Amino acid sequence: MKPIKEGKVREVYDNGDSIIMVATDRISAFDVILKNKIVNKGAVLTQMSKFWFDFTSDIMPNHMLSCDVKDMPEYFQNEEYKGKSMKVKKLTMLPVECIVRGYITGSGWASYKETGLVCGIKLPEGLKESDKLPEPIYTPSTKAEIGDHDENISFERSIEVLEKEFPGKGEEYAKALRDNTIALYKKCADYALTRGIIIADTKFEFGLDEDGNVVLADEMLTPDSSRFWPLEGYEAGHGQPSFDKQFVRDWLKANPDSDYLLPQDVIDKTIAKYLEAYKLLTGKDLEIQ
Questions:
Q1: Which DSSP symbol is given to 41?
Q2: pLDDT value at position 224?
Q3: Using one digit for the tens of pLDDT, what is the confidence trace for 218-248?
């Protein structure tokens, strides 16, 4: 079988009436696929998404059907795909990435320092780096092709983007994306705090099923799509240590001549962070079934 779509980390296979999504052990940073593999990273992403899809099924439907390779074609029933593969519903994907920020950091902090705004949203004066926001903010972006950067857009612009593709439905879909994004974030961020993790920000993707219902899709609240900070030691006023790819990004920034090749100790520390986040959030060690 050949993937019908290959992303920076994921491979997507057509399975007739469903899709098989495989999270590989590739890692990307600054929209570039690195030369190293991070063993078990794909399994962490898939199993963590499964955990969150189950956890939020009361808020809205999601695309997950099964994470057991026995429910997939024979091609996937081997060690290479075990734990990394998810059988999902076929959806018409909506062309907006749904980003929600509960804390001010990263590009949001850089923008706020300059203008007092984040993606066009005015925030209170006097915020410090890594401060918790009074309320989570929704800052959508357009989806870019591999090699390009996603573009932050306003909520009003998201209506236009959706209206162009789904005439007469732009505002309805834009509101559904915004409201579901905030609701999902609030439930999961509150839970994560009880497990010792701050979810500073994250992104969701959604699609439409055959009846036109909005369905949660892609990955969910993984270290690749989110900023996870340890609650212990959290203090606003500076950057925070993280459980995500920030460790890799920081090393690459400090080593501009690396040609996107990581040393082994950075690889080991990265997967250790992913596994630690998985255990904290789910309460169990990663088991690949």
A1: H
A2: 87
A3: 999 998 899 999 999 999 999 999 887 777 8
The length of the chain is 289
Same domain, 97 and 76: no
157 and 254 belong to one structural domain: no
What is the sign of the dihedral through the CA atoms of 106, 107, 111 and 116?
negative
Q: Are residues 30 and 107 in the same domain?
A: no
288 occurs within a structural domain = no
The sign of the CA dihedral 36, 37, 41, 45 is positive
Helix (H, G, I), strand (E, B) or coil at 39: coil
201 — phi, psi (to 5°)? -160, 165
What total of structural domains would you count in the chain? Answer: 2
Helix (H, G, I), strand (E, B) or coil at 158: helix
Residue whose structure tokens are 């989570």:
136
Domain of residue 178, CATH code: 3.30.470.20
Beta bridge partners of 85: 22
Where is pLDDT greater, at 43 or 250? 43
278 in a structural domain: yes
* Amino acid occupying residue 149: H
Beta pairing partners, 20: 13, 87
**Using one digit for the tens of pLDDT, what is the confidence trace for 207-221?**
999 999 999 999 999
Taking the mean position of all CA atoms in its chain, how far away is CA 226?
Answer: 5
Domain span at residue 198?
Answer: 93-230
Please report the pLDDT score of residue 255 as a whole number: 96
